[in-house]
Design a protein that fits this description.
With 185 residues, the chain is mainly alpha-helical. The protein is 83% helix and 0% strand. The protein contains eight helices and no strands. The radius of gyration is 18 Å and the shape is globular.
Length: 185
Amino acid sequence: MTGMHHMLVHFPLALWALAALMVLVGVCTRGAWGQISRSGLPAVLILAWLGALAAIVTGLLVWPTAANLSSPLTRNHLLMALWATALWTVITLLVWRGGARAFSGGRGAVLLILALAGSGLFTLTGTLGGHLAGAPTPMSQLLERLGWSVYGTFYLPYWALLLLVLLGGICVVAGFRKEDKGDRQ
């Protein structure tokens, strides 16, 4: 089952990386490339989501649940995988419900910020997975310099917590401002 998990994780990672690029092109370009990105993105996001579910299920089947939850490194890997999947699920729903409007103005900026955050989360997930497979990367060293020991119990460094609160506040304010403008029209 370990080999199956190692194979399956590459599908959502590649598709989410493609989705982040498609969000960037869809938000920043109004020509043919932007239209292609905006119209193709929902399919890419749904395939990535299905791949993520398969990867999470096979990852949970690799070892017994008690073993997964007793190792801080495995617990961190699982948390990051679930957070990344949750964030990309939100992005999928926003693109699906918003259609072309999701890419314009403040909505597009929020979508781009969420895609960058989702990319960061799946990068962390892969980094921790690499540690579990015995193949640490230079990203691991960067995390150590930023104050996160990947082998320790999960915690969020204060700078990351403040950044998340700040980004969340900006997104909430942007959402209310856009809603107010929509009510006046």
